[in-house]
From TrEMBL:
Pfam family, one: Cad
Organism expressing this protein natively: Streptomyces milbemycinicus
InterPro entries tied to this protein: Cd-R_transporter
Alphabetic keyword roster: Membrane, Transmembrane, Transmembrane helix
Domain of life: Bacteria
Regions crossing the membrane: 6-29, 41-66, 139-161, 173-191
Name of the protein this chain belongs to: Cadmium resistance transporter
Amino acid sequence: MDLGIVGQAAGLFAVTNIDDILILSLFFAQGAGHQGSARRIVIGQYLGFAAILAVAIAAAFGATFLPEPAIPYLGLLPLALGLKAAWQAWKHRDGEDDDKETAEGGPKALEVAAVTFANGGDNIGVYVPVFATAGVGGMSVYAVVFLALVAVWCFAGRYFATRPVIANALSRWGHFLLPLVLIAIGLLILIEGGGFGL
């Protein structure tokens, strides 16, 4: 295995996914104390990133699943999830928690996957030309390195969410920050892509 391509893959992943660490930290903070939430977040991150990889690989071979004008509307996914999270935060603003919510609460795997995929729309645009020129062997190395680094990103997100200073800040402000970050991501994707004529 060519170490040069491994380094290039690691660098490309880091540059295109640096914002995911913040989002993962917020998800892990939201899931703190909820049974199985860490597992759901990791599964969701892998599902979302696997979808990004699948679309980028298929596009590198010439297949297109989404017409170019439809891509900005992926911003509706994090926007809707952000509004839902904001509603939940407002509904529970008095700090009332049900026992059921403590046991099963936190982010759902499909919500994490949707945010990961929508936030990775720009990643696809970067990955396609790289994959197209890397060939099948190189593309395989990129995919393996990327999937290994998803685990590192999940670990980093959880690590930051459990550091005492960060954890205290996230537990105090996370229920406000997560909706704001998701709404901002959704609006940014819509605006940058020119969705709805923005």
